[in-house]
């Protein structure tokens, strides 16, 4: 394996689709810092959804041009920005690819919140339209450009489904014995738990097809729940600050618990809290992308799939940990989601481990840092955005409303 630091990035351009988002922004800075020429492509749909949901990032985030200018001034590098809807401006995307001739495209540009994708029929349809069309446009444009571009996509652990792991979850493929007795390695079956997760399963089928039919070089990263907000690069200036979502649609569970602890709110455990999920810190998201870029598949290879996870935890154990550290109280509330109430989760992350990745885990100091950020900005919290407001089905909605 090729360790990221050993790669010659000189003259190499990377497009970061969705580079204004929570994972995309710190990754764009990290890749720029490593010497890649970075072009952020984003239609700012996430900032517009903030307006729709009447809730902003807990941390104040600067406008794209403002924060890019700050980075360019202090890093002596140059990030550029293209305002574009990658799902619906195909010709614009193709032109950009032909002009920039990137060695790789990192694709974060999707609607990524499971609760938002279940909010109503408009949001369900928007999520599939945006995510599947975006992926389709990227793949088609790469074929059309006739350039040998490595596509790195941010997928999710949720494609495997939770609750029926049947042992350690492998990295994308399952060895099976067909009825004929023949052995075969197949794409792991998809068990999406939300419309958002279903859109990622559809993406995965498109990757499989384009890798086989057109020989595209594709890496799909099945990432766990991301926590934290700061990275070394975003800490270099106040105006480089990253997003911190805390509302019930976009806030991920550990960041929500840390926010709740900082504001004196009870920690909202959905159901029994027996759900086990995989976690990764935002700084490791950036490192894993760099490692994936440094280790592309060869032309003709099947899609390279990595599980991008550091550790697994049960939701109620996370709540107990945060409560112990901060004195917060824990509230079990009816689960707005339709998911297994208890599940085991054992995940292989051997692919990244074999490249020397040594992930950070739930260290006390990092947890304290996040609580510190939440305390600093707690005056910005809209308390009416903390309780669940998206429900998986009518039964869940009635149970939640009856409890409210
Ligand atoms: P985010 O919503 O903060 O960022 C996504 C960015 O993509 C936003 O800036 C948005 O404006 C942009 N975007 C969306 N649709 C677009 C389009 N059609 N054209 C151009 N830009 C578009 O989300 P995030 O947390 O940074 O997640 C990024 C990716 O990582 C997603 O694909 C998500 O599925 C995956 N992921 C995230 C997590 C997590 O916990 N945050 C975990 C696993 C996987
Ligand atoms: N949960 C609570 N209380 C809360 C919020 C969540 O108990 O206040 C529970 C949920 O019911 C769920 C678990 O915590 O069982 C995780 O929820 P989450 O919102 O943190 O994560 P999820 O909806 O799975 O989605 C997030 C990202 C998504 C990414 C996914 C990775 O938003 O983009 O794909 O994590 S994974 O979960 O591994 O599929």
UniProtKB/TrEMBL annotation:
<feature type="domain" description="NAD-dependent epimerase/dehydratase">
    <location>
        <begin position="14"/>
        <end position="298"/>
    </location>
</feature>
<comment type="similarity">
    <text>Belongs to the NAD(P)-dependent epimerase/dehydratase family.</text>
</comment>
<protein>
    <submittedName>
        <fullName>UDP-sulfoquinovose synthase, chloroplast</fullName>
    </submittedName>
</protein>
């Amino acid at each position: 394996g090729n360790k990221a630091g050993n790669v010659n990035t000189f003259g190499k351009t990377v497009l970061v689709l969705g580079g204004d988002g929570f994972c995309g922004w710190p990754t764009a800075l990290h890749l720029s810092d490593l010497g890649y020429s970075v072009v952020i492509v984003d239609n700012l749909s996430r900032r517009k959804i903030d307006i729709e949901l009447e809730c902003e990032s807990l941390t104040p985030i600067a406008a794209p041009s403002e924060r890019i200018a700050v980075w360019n001034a202090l890093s002596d590098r140059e990030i550029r920005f293209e305002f574009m809807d990658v799902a619906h401006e195909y010709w614009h995307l193709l032109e950009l690819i032909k002009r920039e001739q990137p060695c790789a495209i990192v694709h974060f540009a999707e609607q990524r919140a499971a609760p938002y994708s279940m909010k109503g029929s408009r949001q369900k349809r928007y999520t599939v339209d945006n995510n599947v069309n975006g992926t389709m446009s990227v793949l088609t444009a790469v074929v059309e450009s006739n350039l040998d571009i490595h596509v790195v996509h941010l997928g999710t652990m949720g494609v495997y489904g939770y609750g029926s792991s049947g042992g350690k979850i492998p990295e994308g493929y399952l060895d099976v014995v067909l009825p004929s007795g023949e052995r075969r390695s197949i794409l792991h079956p998809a068990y999406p738990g939300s419309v958002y997760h279903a859109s990622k399963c559809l993406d995965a089928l498109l990757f499989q097809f384009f890798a086989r039919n057109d020989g595209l070089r594709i890496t799909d990263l099945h990432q766990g729940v991301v926590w934290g907000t700061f990275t070394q690069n975003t800490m270099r200036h106040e105006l480089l600050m990253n997003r911190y979502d805390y509302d019930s649609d976009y806030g991920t569970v550990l960041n929500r618990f840390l926010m709740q602890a900082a504001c004196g709110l009870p920690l909202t455990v959905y159901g029994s809290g027996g759900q086990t999920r995989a976690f990764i810190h935002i700084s490791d998201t950036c490192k894993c992308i760099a490692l994936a870029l440094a280790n592309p598949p060869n032309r003709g290879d099947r899609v390279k799939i990595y599980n991008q996870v550091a550790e697994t935890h049960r939701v109620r154990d996370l709540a107990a940990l945060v409560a112990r550290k901060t004195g917060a109280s824990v509230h079990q509330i009816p689960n707005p989601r339709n998911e297994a109430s208890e599940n085991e989760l054992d995940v292989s992350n051997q692919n990244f481990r074999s490249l020397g990745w040594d992930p950070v885990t739930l260290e006390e100091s990092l947890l304290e840092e996040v609580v510190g950020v939440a305390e600093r900005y707690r005056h910005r919290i809209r308390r009416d955005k903390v309780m669940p407001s998206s429900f998986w089905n009518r039964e869940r909605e009635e149970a939640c409303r009856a409890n409210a």
